[in-house]
Design a protein that fits this description.
Blueprint (H helix, E strand, L loop, with lengths): L3 H22 L4 E2 L6 E2 L4 H29 L6 H15 L6 H7 L7
Antiparallel strand pairs: 1-2
Helix pairs in contact: 1-2, 2-3
């Protein structure tokens, strides 16, 4: 059994690794349409953290991703739009933790970690 301090250290370490992975993945996307629109894999780290740590991990990583994306280069028209497009949107991806019980049920309640 891990103590609280080592669990916190593990969470912070994974948080840092997934944020670094997000930054790397944010540079690549598959352009599909000429007018805009693309597929990017930058949301995958958020979903993995949400699966592993629930809402705490998903929302933390999502909001931090949004803030980093805002810092690294954002198209901002108004402060309200900046909040909606970056921290809020990426944070809401953290709610994929809602699907964890369904995924575990689909895999027969096996330990997937």
């Amino acid at each position: 059994m891990q103590n609280t301090q080592s669990k916190n250290l593990r969470f912070i370490t994974e948080l840092a690794l997934f944020i670094a992975l997000f930054v790397v993945l944010s540079f690549w996307s598959i352009r599909l349409w000429g007018e805009g629109g693309s597929i990017s894999f930058q949301m995958v780290p958020t979903m993995i953290m949400a699966y592993r740590y629930g809402y705490k991990g998903g929302l933390t990583v999502g909001i931090l991703f949004g803030l980093i994306k805002l810092i690294l280069g954002a198209y901002i028209l108004t402060p309200f739009q900046a909040f909606l497009d970056y921290p809020l949107t990426f944070g809401l991806v953290g709610f994929t933790a809602v699907t964890v019980p369904m995924v575990k049920k689909a895999f027969g309640n096996k330990e997937i970690d």
